[in-house]
């Protein structure tokens, strides 16, 4: 039984820069603050951009639709971001303003009537990856898949990866009550476990070869 189908977009050879203002995202009183957002700080007529910076400006904007036979599969984009990010890093009363209004459009546009805390595609994108190759959750389809089911994908190829020599892929992963497939966690457990066994063996061998000498000091005690 399948509990859902997770859809990720995977990008390679993409390098982030420090071009954002976290205070602007989480505090409406600082929504006009655009420091550390060069070169996407202001519009041509001097109005502050919200959210500012190249990271938000380059928001992924490919779109996908899925069908199984003649059945359209609904993509659920609710709760694809971290709850801690929605509640603490993106304010409920900060709205996009002057975003993607310049001559050069970087990626997806945002609905100016929806607060940043509900713009989950943006929140997922703004949790920047440490490596140049990464994948991010696009959405989920809650269907029970059967053997030999054929899923047809239609995509709009909007995101320009050619300019930086990158590649992009769509990754589909089934999910169970234990969650989706994640090889990294398994490899991490194996590596840490193997390291612990090696260190335990090394310390045991060291003790057998050169045991630790414990010195006792005897003192005479006179009882009166």
From TrEMBL:
Residues passing through the membrane, by range: 187-209
One Pfam family this sequence matches: CDC50
GO CC terms of this entry: endoplasmic reticulum; Golgi apparatus; plasma membrane
Top-level taxon of origin: Eukaryota
Record key words, sorted: Membrane, Transmembrane, Transmembrane helix
Cell compartments where the protein resides: Membrane
Main location class: membrane
PANTHER family, A to Z: ALA-INTERACTING SUBUNIT (PTHR10926:SF30), CELL CYCLE CONTROL PROTEIN 50 (PTHR10926)
Family named by the database record: Belongs to the CDC50/LEM3 family.
Protein's recorded name: ALA-interacting subunit
Organism: Aegilops tauschii subsp. strangulata
């Amino acid at each position: 039984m399948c509990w859902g189908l997770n859809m990720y977009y995977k990008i390679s050879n993409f390098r982030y820069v420090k071009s954002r203002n976290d205070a602007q995202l989480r505090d409406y009183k600082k929504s006009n603050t655009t420091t550390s957002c060069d070169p996407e700080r202001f519009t041509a007529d001097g109005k502050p951009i919200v959210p500012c910076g190249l990271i938000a400006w380059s928001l992924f904007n490919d779109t996908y639709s899925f069908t199984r036979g003649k059945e359209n599969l609904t993509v659920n984009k609710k709760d694809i971001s971290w709850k801690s990010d929605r509640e603490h890093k993106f304010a409920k009363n900060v709205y996009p303003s002057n975003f993607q209004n310049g001559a050069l459009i970087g990626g997806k546009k945002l609905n100016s009537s929806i607060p940043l805390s509900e713009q989950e595609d943006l929140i997922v994108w703004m949790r920047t990856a440490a490596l140049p190759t990464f994948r991010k959750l696009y959405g989920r389809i809650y269907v029970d898949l059967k053997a030999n089911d054929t899923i047809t994908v239609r995509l709009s190829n909007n995101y320009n990866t050619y300019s930086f020599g990158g590649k992009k892929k769509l990754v589909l992963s089934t999910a169970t009550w234990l969650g989706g497939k994640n090889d990294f966690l398994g490899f991490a457990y194996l590596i840490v476990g193997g390291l612990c066994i090696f260190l335990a063996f090394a310390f045991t061998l060291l003790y057998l070869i050169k045991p630790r000498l414990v010195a006792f000091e005897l003192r005479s005690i006179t009882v009166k």
